[in-house]
Design goal:
Oligomer: single chain
Number of strands: 6
CATH superfamily of the domain at 2-94: Nucleic acid-binding proteins
Low-confidence stretches: 94-119
Number of helices: 1
């Protein structure tokens, strides 16, 4: 999955050692996504784990396109969900597509494109009436 937004907080780096003796690190970020200049932007926490922490050093204020996976797991009868980043590309404000809102995520819901061509009366299934709803 992919989303474009602004980094609004960077949390303290977490480090540790696994049971197998391997060192690990995890960096958490808070991202804000404001699709269509909504009054209520969405916020979520994601992380980079392991070598990706150093590979993608992000700072507060960066606008990035984040590629991520969502994973849930069960532990002691409770479910936990992680948003794990695997790539981040910093977005240059000048490189945004014309008419796109800053921080807007490209969304493709799979809807067919709507053409501007008028509907001919013979194309309707109810015999040509254009003022009746189909339900």
């Amino acid at each position: 999955m992919e989303v474009t937004g602004k980094i609004i907080d960077k949390f303290e780096l977490q480090k540790g050692t696994s049971k197998a003796g391997n060192e690990w690190q995890k960096q958490l970020y808070l991202m804000e996504v404001n699709e269509n200049n909504s009054q209520y932007p969405k916020k979520f926490v994601f992380d980079f784990f392991g070598s990706r922490v150093n590979e993608y050093p992000l700072e507060v204020g960066d606008t990035v396109t984040l590629s991520f996976d969502i994973e849930s797991r069960e532990f002691n009868g409770r479910w936990y969900t992680d948003i794990r980043g695997w790539r981040a590309v910093k977005v240059d404000g000048a490189a945004a597509p014309a008419g796109a809102a800053p921080g807007a995520a490209p969304v493709d819901l799979g809807a067919p494109a709507i053409s501007g061509a008028p509907i001919a009366a013979g194309d309707l299934t109810d015999g040509g009436s254009t003022d009746d709803l189909p339900f």
